[in-house]
Amino acid sequence: MKPKYEDFCGERVENLQPSIPSSMRDKIRHWWTAYKNLLFIRWANIRNEWYFGVIVGMLFPLAIMTFMKLNGSAEDSASGLYVATGNAVMSLVMGPMQSICNDLAWARQRNDLDYFAALPVSKLQITLAFATVSGLFIIPAMLFSIGMGAWWFGFQLEWTPMVLPVMVVCSLSMTGLGVLAGVFARGIHQANMFNSAMMLVVVFLSPVLIPYENLPGFLKATSRLLPTSYAAAALRGSLTGMPVPEMLRLIGILLGFTICFLYLGTKKLDWRVD
To answer: Residue 7 CB: number of other CB atoms within 10 A?
Structure first.
């Protein structure tokens, strides 16, 4: 028996139409479902190479700690804490930013943005999904840096519930800059040059491996302009029992950087490619 035309229209077609959220609860559920689908799409693209990112992410903090230990720059537990947490912050902040910069530059080069433009998702959802997957790859490197530093330099850790929100805001604090760079980069090579330049700026103008009191006046001023300084202070505070009001102040500053950069990045993110 041949299917009738009515089988492909009317009620059956209506069932295929996406439901329009009516209440705030429905809107949140709809937003969360789209976000989870984007997470799956992103993970499916890199599921065969995840171990490479984890291993490389561990090598950088290990090399820095080894260098600082051998040249005598971190001889006591206090300086060791700065080195270990500074390493972790560099991974948490720079990792997602560099990853999403390369991802968007590569997507523009391959016209992948046309695919995302056809999906019922927002630019913010795509940005957060990409940043979340990148952040998950950074967590092993962060834990390795802190654990290795505590064992090697002998400082005490006090894990508090504030570690989790600090990790989240640190990984998102410069993601918007990665979006901006990925949007304006004409290819993966320009994206890599931007990542190298940003690494130099952050390392030299916001040195997170050295106590703030030991910095010269110029670096004290520039370090306040970058989120890495506040991220390092927040991470150290979450591991050493910093008072909650001070922790909330640092998290609030990082949220300000996050919102500002994400707004600028998603505003410039264009579905169209040249």
So the answer is: 11
